[in-house]
Design goal:
Elements (H helix, E strand, L loop, with lengths): L2 H35 L7 H7 L11 H15 L10 H17 L1 E7 L2 E7 L2 H18 L6 E7 L2 E7 L3 H16 L5 H9 L7
Antiparallel strand pairs: 1-2, 2-4, 3-4
Helix pairs in contact: 4-5, 4-7
Amino acid sequence: MNSSDLNRKHRTKLLLGGLGILALLAILYPVFSGMHTAASPGESHQAHADHADGATPGEAGQSAFAAIAEIVALLTADPDTDWSKVDITALRTHLVDMDRLILGASASQQTDGDTVIFQISGEGEVLRAIHAMVPAHARELDKIDDWRVSAEAIPEGAILKVSTENAAEQEKVAALGFFGLMATGSHHQPHHMAMAKGDMMSH
C-alpha cells in the first residue's frame, strides 16, 4: 500500500470519527439541556410558572379543586381571615355532595295545578347528599319572587314542590327541572365562602 492510500485511509478514519462524535453530541444534548432546565424535586409551583413562556391556564384543575383553590386564594388575600376557624374540609365535603347529587340522583317531575312536583331518589352516599342539600336549597329557592318552594325528606330521597301562579314562571320551573333548580340562585358562592371560614354549616 503506497503513502497516498495510507493518507486516504487515515482521512477516512478521521472523518468517520468526527461524524461519530457529532452524532453522540446530538444524542446527549437534550439530556444535558433537560438537566439544566428541568425543575428539581423541591422546586415550587411558582418556579414552574416562572419558567413557562407565554400565557398560563386560568383553570386550576377539576371543578371542585378549582373551587377550593379560588376560596383559598381569597382567604389568603384577606388580612382579616381567622385561620383558627377556617374549615376547607367542610367545603370539600359539600362539593362532594354537590357532585353526587348532580351526577348520581334520579329525578321525576309532574305538574299539579300551579305546582311542579319533583321526586328525587338515590342510594347510599347519593341519598345522604339528597337529604343534606335539597331541603336547605328549597329554603333559598323560596326567596325568589312569585315562587313558593318547599321540600321534605323521604326514605328514598326527597319531594320538592315549586308553586307559582305566574304561568311564565311555571313554564320556566318545568323547563329547568330539578337539576336546573339546584343550580338556580346566587347564594352558592357566598355560602361556600362562609362555610370555608367556619361561619356556617353546610347544606
